[in-house]
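Subject: for your reference before the review

Hello V.,

The reviewers asked for a structural picture of the protein, and I figured it would be easier to keep everything in one thread rather than splitting it across files. Below is the amino acid sequence we used in the manuscript, unchanged from the supplementary table.
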Amino acid sequence: MESRKNYGWFDDTRGEYVITDYDTPRPWMNYLGNEDFFSLVSNTGGGYSFYKDAKHRRLTTCCGGSFTEANDGRCFYIKDDDVLWSPFFRPCKTPLDSYECRHGVGYTRIKASKDDVDISALFFVPLETNAEIQKLTFTNNTGSVKRLQIFSMQQWCNWEADLEEADFYSEVEVDGPIIFNKAGYRAQRDYYAFYSVNNAHIEGFDTDREEFLGEDNDLCRPQAVRNGASFGSIAKASSSIASHSIDLRLWPGETKDLIFMLGYIENKPKDKFEKDGSLNKDKAWKMVSKFDSSSKVDKAFAELKEYWHSNLESFTLKSPDEKTDRMVNVWNQYQSAVNFNFPAAPSSSILGCIHQRPELAERRILDLAATQAEDGALEGNPMWLVYCTSAYIKEIGEFSILKEKVPFASGAVMPLADHLRLALEYVLKNRGSHGLPLYGDSESVAAAAMFVVCAREFAQLCSRSKREEFSATIIAEAHNLSAIISSQAWDGEWFVNSFDPSGKAVGSKRNEEGKIYLEPQAWCSLAEIGKEKGMTLKALDSVRNYMDCEQGIVFANPAFARFDQQAGSISSYPQGFGYNGGVSCPTNPLIVIAEALSGRCADAWEHYRKITPSYIHNQRVYRLEPFVYCDLVSGRDATRPGEASKSWITPTSSLAWYAVSQYLLGIRPSYDGLEVDPCIPMEWEGFEVERKFRKAQYHISVKNPDGLATGVKQLIVDGKPVEGKIIPYSSGKHTVEVIIG
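And here is what came back from the structure prediction:
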């Protein structure tokens, strides 16, 4: 048994995670950025930056090559006489007198001290700016003058992440305090990157990695740093970097700032060059001038913090459980926003951000619809377009988006309502011998059940927007699919996963391995397939009996001990890892919702807590960041149960937010207002929520005087009793009291 070890703690007052041990099991990352420019920064300064596309427009790379290694992406070296150290511990690995990393919402601050010199490094991406700010603050706590030499180092990626070793792309230029990366600019590209020091005189620079590091290729102790002087190297057909050297003199007690900036610039083709053929640097100099003093940087940082505060205050919780509070109030909403902004985010990420930025959710829905083929096909599951559009309209209370004219990938244009209809019809047109939708070459029970859920949502949209003629056929097909599932896909205790091309059931008690899969149990329960016959509750019981473990609910059970041609790719994973008996974190919230809707609140909360990172009790085993959701956790059959993989960019975040906010706390938008239907632990005496909804602000106080888990006994809005569970919408501020009983 590995001993329990924690590497940090939650500072809930500041909304930060504080890392006190730099030797975390893996680099613990924070995602900084806006809609276009992103930076990943680890607790030891590792990571990289990119514009929109991490694969094809990456500015910098990790020198360690892998996030599982010493990924020193932002290197700063301090030379104090003969002592050489880094404020992030890496890459120098010189022991520090103190160290602390604070990952916050949209920023990271790393503090360290060595020999009575304190350094605080702040990293953030300003609003509406395609750049990362690196503000380093130096303080001399000795009784004598300190003369320090500061060396920066960023390694250029030259845009193509898969070609990080393609040295022939290198082309750099140095103009005063700015080092420009012009890789490919003279020909096919109309964009470049730069790295600058905005408020200090530089003593020297280097752009050639080999010369900077020296013959030993020693990232821990580069030759230039050991010499105490830059070489002034210009990279030509070699691995390029951006490095500045600065001499800093500090009087006793004095504090000074250095402001570094990593930026991305695009020029129109006609504006790429000056008249003399040189690089057009106007936009770069203007960007630098916006952040050339500490006061300007501090102002931009304050604006960023206010932006995030405004986003997060859309939904705030005060409950008896601080671990739930910190996830709901800060980390779950923050991660959902990061997922939403990330270019490669899945469609379901829309669910986690509608309440924060509905206008951005609208744009994402329309952008998603614009990638649709005229036959209704979409990359991934086309049902998410229907599901997310329904959720968006419930949030804003307006149906006008359905009339928006949206092009298909081919260029033809139709209202969004027709895009939704075609998405549903596409599923119906592509079915197998059992009449179930095809997923690859197999018939998928989960896809059929999700169609049933989305068909019902579509019917409501049609009814309320007076488009009933669209929904009649869809609803009839939903009834038909429900009947097919309950008659042909029910295996006695659970729903089978699929039917392979030969018609054999996959995920059946007749299988030796992979008898039960999670996804069909989740979606069939949400679709209430066979509810009147007790099928949904039996399926949920089977999930608990056969799939639940200490780490969460596994994707399939029993795990495959060998490759199974019928099961396909999931059996290629080792037992207990990935989808072969590993915990599928994005699917777990769907079971949480199903249990909550069934009134089984204790089960719902147990499932929720198992995948929620604030409840992780052994950070050494979990390995990844204990403040954001991950995609997979190794299950009970693994050699290392409880080890997490793929954090930050995962559907888990938005689906977990959807589950906890709308079904556990039970505050969910409806077409007529906010529906309040909590499903809480019996020991809770109640909780309070502040919820911005449309043009209203609601203070909702839920009380549980009888120690029950669910059921609304009384709903009081602004002092007046209201029948049912829905708070009728009206603008302004409102006080709501909910009595469980």
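For the response letter, the relevant points are probably these. The first strand starts at residue 8 and ends at 11. The chain has a mean pLDDT of 94.

Happy to draft the paragraph if you're swamped.

O.
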